[in-house]
Amino acid sequence: DLADIGVTGLAVMGRNLARNIARHGHAVAVHNRSSQRVDDLIAENGDEGDFRPSHSVEDFVASLAKPRRVIVMVKAGPATDAVIDELTPLLEEGDIVVDAGNAHFEDTRRREAALKEKGMHFVGTGVSGGEEGALLGPSIMPGGSRESYEALGPILESIAVEVDGTPCCTYVGPDGAGHFVKMVHNGIEYADMQLIAEAYDLLRQGLGLSPAELADVFDEWNSGDLESFLVEITARVLRHTDARTGRPFVDVVVDEAEQKGTGRWTVQSALDLGVPVSGIAEAVFARALSGAADQRAAVQAKGLAGPTGGALEGADAEGFVDAVRQALYASKVVAYAQGFDQITAASEQYGWGVDRGMMATIWRGGCIIRARFLDRIKQAYDADPHLASLLLDDYFASAVADAQDAWRRVVATAVHLGIPTPGFSSALAYYDGLRRDRLPASLVQGLRDLFGAHTYRRVDAEGTYHVLWSGDHSEERQDHIDQ
Ligand code: NBP
């Protein structure tokens, strides 16, 4: 009588995932490098289901039914490679190794290729929802071979969170697709949080609202189009009072945002793919600026000039709360549109065939970015699977059209008041850039041709051209020199 699946790596995530699997009626083999974690799991949660503990990798592998399904849930990076190297000599062709940690998708591609050589399947899967999600139902984004999903999908779908009866787990695509999509999900999370933070800042500085008053504003927003986990918890954080000082909690927290790296990975990948994810990039940079403590202190000490006016008053203040709500929504549409563009570009580059509507579907539960909004994205891709931008979907196009006056007012006000809104401003600049029939990129091309003979294309004729800038300024066609 062998186990259906195994989990190795029983720190918080692996332990909760194993418990989730056991609670759903699967026999789960459990293993960890240091045995104590195995013993603790059995002692504390052993009655929750059918656990098969092992103290050695050999026993662990031997306790699994074939084809063996092994979930690796250890620290991302070298530890994952170490565990894979330990496991593979004990496995056979057709066995499936699942990396459920937060691996970089390029590492997943490398590992998948290496295991494929041995006839084994390697599944890099995004798992979202943190500790609690792992136990009660995460969103799961598995990549790898279709064949491996046949064997693995039913178990994963059984432990994933469900929204409207649909499990938040689906086959994403080959090799690194699952980890890639999880990475972009995290990048979007960065952008979303930055936009929320800007909305808070604008209303607090611009209108002088207190954190408690702002908690009410976010609560109200959470009953409309902005309904989401992040907006809900923003209200909770803003309402929280520090027990030690009686001050608003946000005022006692050091204002330096940290990052573990997935936002940075997303932007690095976007740069490689040439996709403008300005919303995510601005969010990563805003965290970097907040963390530049020495520089900020030096600027505080010297003081740099800013606008002299105070908070908004009279007509300027009128309707500003709702204007910020609309600006937040429009900026959020842009940030998500950009994130989905990045998934599209990678899917094309790597031949993944990612179904974007399904990604929106499986992010509706478990994920930090879970939101009502994702249903709209799903509907947009259902209506047109080849949609060139989310901004072109009728619903989003009209939502942004309705919001645009408010959006422009908010960005202009932020500039007047000297309140930094890199998320709101860059989203608007992106939107306006996309709208323009002619961009000043023509001048950039002209400059490149002058200083570097980089050539340009004409609006009225085929071919690439160069102006003899240091000669008689005549134009030469460059693309059929050897004809
Ligand atoms: P950690 O990331 O803290 O890793 C600890 C685990 O890795 C322990 O089981 C440890 O074994 C094992 N390990 C290490 Br470290 N080096 C090893 C090696 N050379 N050989 C074998 N095992 C080794 O655990 P976690 O916080 O549970 O996270 C697990 C994964 O899930 C990570 O990739 C993390 O990024 C990801 N994660 C995801 C979320 C999410 O929301 N999706 C949240 C948190 C973490 P030991 O007990 O013997 O030291």
TrEMBL record:
Keywords from UniProt, A to Z, are: Gluconate utilization, NADP, Oxidoreductase, Pentose shunt
Q: Where does substrate bind?
A: N102, S128, G129, G130, H185, N186, Y190, K260, R287, R448, H454
- Binding-site residues for NADP(+), renumbered to this chain: G9, L10, A11, V12, M13, G14, N32, R33, S34, V74, K75, A76, N102
Biological or metabolic pathway of the protein: Carbohydrate degradation; pentose phosphate pathway; D-ribulose 5-phosphate from D-glucose 6-phosphate (oxidative stage): step 3/3
Reactions mediated catalytically: 6-phospho-D-gluconate + NADP(+) = D-ribulose 5-phosphate + CO2 + NADPH
Family matches, as SUPFAM superfamilies: 6-phosphogluconate dehydrogenase C-terminal domain-like (SSF48179), NAD(P)-binding Rossmann-fold domains (SSF51735)
Q: Name one Pfam family in it.
A: 6PGD
Has the keyword Cell membrane been applied to this entry? no
Q: In what residue span(s) does the 6-phosphogluconate dehydrogenase C-terminal domain sit? A: 178-470
Q: What is its EC number?
A: 1.1.1.44
Task: Give this protein's Gene Ontology molecular function annotations.
Answer: NADP binding; phosphogluconate dehydrogenase (decarboxylating) activity
Biological process (GO) annotations held by this record are: D-gluconate metabolic process; pentose-phosphate shunt
Active site located where?
K182 (proton acceptor), E189 (proton donor)
Question: What is the role of the protein in this entry?
Answer: Catalyzes the oxidative decarboxylation of 6-phosphogluconate to ribulose 5-phosphate and CO(2), with concomitant reduction of NADP to NADPH.
Family in the record = Belongs to the 6-phosphogluconate dehydrogenase family.
- Tell me how this protein assembles: Homodimer.
The identity of this protein, by name, is 6-phosphogluconate dehydrogenase, decarboxylating
